[in-house]
Amino acid sequence: MILSKKKPDNIEVLETEYAKKQYAEYANQQKQIVYRRRRLAVVFSLAAILFISLGVSLFNDYLRLESLKDYKQETVVTQKETAAQKAQLQQTVDLLKDEDYVAKVARSRYLYSKKDELVFPLPENEKEVTSEKSTSDASSKSDKTDDTGQ
């Protein structure tokens, strides 16, 4: 037995006022259902667009925040290095304010002497003097250790 979707021939539609009214109500209800479905589809699509745009905005803000955190870490490291360098330079400035230290550096690096004082450069010292002139950073560190050692 095959069920067919055709309208059977033995069913007749009533053409009374009541039947017409019922058919009209049914048609109206179907229109209302279609209207509600369309309205819900529009509301859901607007909500989806809103949530997607907010999600993209939040994701971009998150990426920007992460990049700013990385930049902050780099800046903090740079700040610490700069503070250490500043402290070292301040210590050098303080040492250069001392006349005895400046005189000692001048005598050891540049072979200056006091009045009536003789300087006897040794071959080992000449090598050190030329290497100290070429690398001033290394010599300033060695002078600090020489000064603290005496």
Shape designation: rod-shaped
Category from helices, strands and their pairing: mainly alpha
Parts with pLDDT < 50 across at least 5 consecutive residues: 136-150
Tally of contiguous helical segments: 4
Tell me the fraction of residues in β-strands, as a range.
under 5%
Oligomerization state: single chain
In helices, the fraction of residues equals: over 70%
Radius of gyration: 47 Å
How far do the termini sit from each other?
Answer: 118 Å
Total number of beta strands: 0
Mean pLDDT: 82
How would you sum up the major sheet?
A: none
Run of helices and strands: HHHH
Protein described:
79% of the residues lie in helices and 0% in strands. The protein contains four helices and no strands. The protein has 150 residues and is mainly α. The longest helix has 80 residues.
Describe the structure in brief:
With 150 residues, the protein is mostly helical.
Question: How does the SSE layout of this entry go?
Answer:
Blueprint: H1 17-96, H2 99-110, H3 123-134, H4 136-149
